[in-house]
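User: Hey, quick favor. My workstation is busy. Could you predict this chain's structure for me?
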Amino acid sequence: MSVQTAPRSGGVQSLERAFGILETMADAGGVISLSQLATDANLPLPTIHRLVRTLVDLGYVRQEASRQYSLGPRLIRLGETTSRMFGRWARPHLERLADELGESVNLAMLDGAQVVYVGQVMASQNSMRMFTEVGRRVLPHSTGVGKAILADMDPAEVRALLARTGMPARTEHTITSADDFLAELAATRERGYALDEGEHEVGVRCVAVAVPDAVQRLALSVSGPLPRMTDVVVARAAGPLHQAAAAISAEMRGGRR
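Assistant: No problem, here it is.
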């Protein structure tokens, strides 16, 4: 991305450039040379050097032994706090979904090789305690949100993730073969939403969609007991889920140009 732009009205150009540098580094995978950073950011090398040195001094960037620059450890605390805020930002959308569909709604994020639930609204008229709760971590292969997130990833990347985590059977319905799981992800992409058919908790069915164009891999789901989560209910839930996911994505990107 280029950060060679005029500052917004009332903005501070050096601050915008510094954040642009951090985003450029993230886009490059977190590690980049100074010359490549100058090229990608479309800024003069002396300007890049001055800004990067300031970010290094603050702990947001670090210089590697290779003389390349990487994102620094001070960003970890900011990232962790921001991750916890996802559920708060999304809560109005989750509440509307729960009211409209009458079932519990969850927001989950891929964190490394695990899925962590970051937001939840329980439907008041049909409350049912399930395995999902904010902060709970699960493996992605047995959940609707995990399938929705992984369906957007390269199959080779998915295989590598599954090799790291393994595919333990949570129930008799859990998919435990990588080939079968990749076929399920293909079906997910074709139908436009993911399904958990009692694969993590017996008797619970879930429909999930990925949050599009998000800075973090997120998915939104509606779940409930199998007798209520009929095919008709699942089909009816898909549209509102996609609308809410798009609204959450737009809100997350609202501060970016």
